[in-house]
């Protein structure tokens, strides 16, 4: 030990120490009344660089600082000197809260809080920024059912009370019960086209019954084809049945005889045999008048014509032809368009 000059006080301040003096030992020499020297215990001098550590913390409700073991319940900046190091705590205290979500889901559920997918019922928690999120989850298994319906015009679905007018696949979900409606709406075209002498239903691939509107919509006997060549003037409609649905068209006016008035009884004209296999006869009976005979097919094309020269009976040969044909007789006093014949 070396004496330090002029240091005779009861305390010693070591100033301007350098790192080279780190580890030096100091002691005091105490002189008693008898001028007997007594040495004190030695003290170790530690020389170091001063530094600062900053710890930024966010905590829920309270925080225990490990530097000093203190518990803090309020936000603030706190310091503690440990040796040559100044410890700084920048503290933010956040009050805790809770949030509960109750969910009922089908088959699975993705919780937006944590992105997790759950397939079983239960209570789940996730803590984020002092908020405890609670998920009370009920998972039900989905059921599926398909109903197939074919209906006329429209269909009212009892499941959702909706009325549908178009075919399609519709879906209704109630809780986890999913019902599919495979719906076919049967649409019937009730319009009629008049092609010269023939009434034609515009609905194909159906069954037909032509009706006489003037006779309280009575069925016309034997007229069950898509086209109809009436025997008499009047108003006609067609009853159409398709895929179990039946609709009746509007009445269509039909005029067979020309506008020129004349007094000819239909009994004075005879066509036989009817139906025929090839040849048939037209017997004008008591009519002694010149004129023309025209025969049309069902679409209004002239397939036969011949002049009348006051002969009572005419033979017509339709070999190789078949179908329904319309006979028009033009006389000087009028046009009779009142006879048809069927050729096999």
Quick gist of this model?
This protein is mostly beta strands. The chain has no helices and 34 strands.
Task: Please give a handful of descriptors for the protein shown.
344 residues, mainly beta, 6 domains, five-stranded antiparallel β-sheet, four-stranded antiparallel β-sheet, 34 strands, rod-shaped
Outline? rod-shaped
CATH overall fold name of the largest domain: Immunoglobulin-like
Largest sheet: 5 strands, antiparallel
- For this entry, what is the oligomeric state of its chains? single chain
Description:
The protein is mostly beta strands and 344 residues long. It folds into six domains: 1-47, no CATH class; 51-94, no CATH class; 97-140, no CATH class; 146-186, no CATH class; 192-254, Immunoglobulin-like (Sandwich), CATH 2.60.40.10; 266-343, Immunoglobulin-like. Helix content is 0%, strand content 54%. The chain contains no helices and 34 strands. The strands form twelve sheets. Strands 22, 23, 25, 26 and 27 form a five-stranded antiparallel β-sheet that branches. β18 and β19 form a beta hairpin. The chain is rod-shaped, with a radius of gyration of 57 Å. Mean pLDDT is 84; it is low at 258-265.
Topology:
Blueprint (H helix, E strand, L loop, with lengths): L24 E2 L2 E3 L5 E3 L3 E2 L6 E10 L2 E2 L6 E2 L3 E7 L2 E10 L2 E10 L2 E2 L6 E2 L3 E7 L2 E10 L2 E10 L2 E3 L4 E3 L3 E7 L2 E10 L5 E4 L2 E4 L5 E6 L5 E2 L7 E2 L5 E9 L2 E4 L3 E3 L15 E3 L6 E5 L6 E7 L5 E8 L3 E5 L5 E9 L2 E10 L1
Parallel strand pairs: 5-9, 10-14, 15-19
Antiparallel strand pairs: 1-4, 2-3, 6-7, 8-9, 11-12, 13-14, 16-17, 18-19, 20-21, 21-24, 22-23, 22-25, 25-26, 25-27, 28-29, 29-32, 30-31, 30-33, 33-34
């Amino acid at each position: 030990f070396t004496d330090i000059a002029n240091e005779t006080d009861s305390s010693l301040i070591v100033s301007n120490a350098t790192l080279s003096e780190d580890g030096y030992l100091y002691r005091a020499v105490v002189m008693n009344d008898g001028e007997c020297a007594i040495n004190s215990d030695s003290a170790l001098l530690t020389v170091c660089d001063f530094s600062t550590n900053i710890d930024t913390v966010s905590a829920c409700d309270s925080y225990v600082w490990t530097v000093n073991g203190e518990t803090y319940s309020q936000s603030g900046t706190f310091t503690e000197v440990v040796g040559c190091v100044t410890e700084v705590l920048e503290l933010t205290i956040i009050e805790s809260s809770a949030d509960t979500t109750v969910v009922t889901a089908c088959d699975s559920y993705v919780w937006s809080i944590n992105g997790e997918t759950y397939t079983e019922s239960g209570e789940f928690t996730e803590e984020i920024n002092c908020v405890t999120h609670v998920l009370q989850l009920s998972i039900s298994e989905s059921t599926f059912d398909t109903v197939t319906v074919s209906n006329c015009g429209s269909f009212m679905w009892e499941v959702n009370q909706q009325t549908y007018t178009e075919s399609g696949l519709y879906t209704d979900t109630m809780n986890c019960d999913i019902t599919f409606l495979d719906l076919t709406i049967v649409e019937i075209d009730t319009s009629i086209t008049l092609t010269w002498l023939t009434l034609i239903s515009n609905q194909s691939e159906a069954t037909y019954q032509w009706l006489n509107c003037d006779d309280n919509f009575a069925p016309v006997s034997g007229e069950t084809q898509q086209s109809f060549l009436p025997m008499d003037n009047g108003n006609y409609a067609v009853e159409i049945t398709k895929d179990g649905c039946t609709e009746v068209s509007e009445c269509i006016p039909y005029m067979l005889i020309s506008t020129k008035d004349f007094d000819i009884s239909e009994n004075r004209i005879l066509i036989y045999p009817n139906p025929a296999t090839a040849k048939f006869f037209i017997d004008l009976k008591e009519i002694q008048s010149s004129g023309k005979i025209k025969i049309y097919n069902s679409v209004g094309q002239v397939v036969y014509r011949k002049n009348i020269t006051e002969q009572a009976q005419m033979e017509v040969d339709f070999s190789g032809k078949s179908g329904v044909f319309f006979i028009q007789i033009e006389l000087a006093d009028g046009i009779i368009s009142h006879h048809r014949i069927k050729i096999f």
